[in-house]
Amino acid sequence: MSPDVYTLPPGLPVPRDDGGADHLVGLDLPDLTLDSSVGPVSVRDFTVVYVYPRSGRPDVPLLPGWDETPGARGCTPQSCAFRDLHADFRVPVAGLSAQSLEDQIEFAERNGMPFPIVSDPERKLGAALGLPTFTIAGLTLYKRITLVAEDGRIVKVFYPVFPPDANAGDVLAYLRSR
Predict the structure, then answer these.
(1) Does 1 have pLDDT greater than 70?
(2) Among 1, 29, 66, 110, which residue carries the largest CB count within 10 Å?
């Protein structure tokens, strides 16, 4: 049976704040260029960078234990919410995961993403900022986190993010309150 990657199933475990993002506010985004669905991009060019573990594909089974891992499920609903609210943001937005460029391009095209979907398989952004990760099925993936930057400096962090499909609205509300 193919997974429904667009809907969050009931009863997902809620991630807990493990302190993995406590050090981020006030840090500068690194001068780092990564490949994306629209070509190479610099992370410093974005006001909002939402980082997610791994987007799903309707034709590929979920990783073993995915739904039972707090914070893992929901990358596609999160991304689609950012897509749906994109025109309201009025600031540069990017999505980023440790998936391959091929996976990111497929995801962006299948879902009509109007902003870059960034590939960071070597987790260079995570190394530069100390972003939290987890390991599942032999893969080290980013924990879900959203960074808001002003002039290249992180001013707000959303972590842990739950439910993931509400993150875009929460970020937009924050930006409007400033």
Answers:
(1) no
(2) 29
Q: Give the helix/strand (H/E) hosting 134.
A: strand 133-136
Distance CA 12, CA 144 (A): 14
Full-model pTM: 0.97
Q: Looking at domain 33-177, which CATH architecture does it have? A: 3-Layer(aba) Sandwich (3.40)
How far is residue 173 CA from its own chain's centroid?
Answer: 18
CA–CA distance, 84 with 117 (Å, rounded to integer) = 15
State how far the Cα of 110 lies from the Cα of 145, in Å rounded to an integer: 23
Tokens 């260079």, residue located: 124
Gap between the Cα atoms of 64 and 171, Å rounded: 30
Residue in 59, 64, 144 with CA at minimum distance from that of residue 97:
144
Query: Which tens digit of pLDDT belongs to each residue from 69-80?
Result: 999 999 999 999
Model pLDDT for residues 118-164, shown as the tens digit of each residue:
999 999 999 999 999 999 999 999 999 999 999 999 999 999 999 99
| For the chain, domain boundaries | 33-177
Chain-centroid distance, C-alpha 109: 17
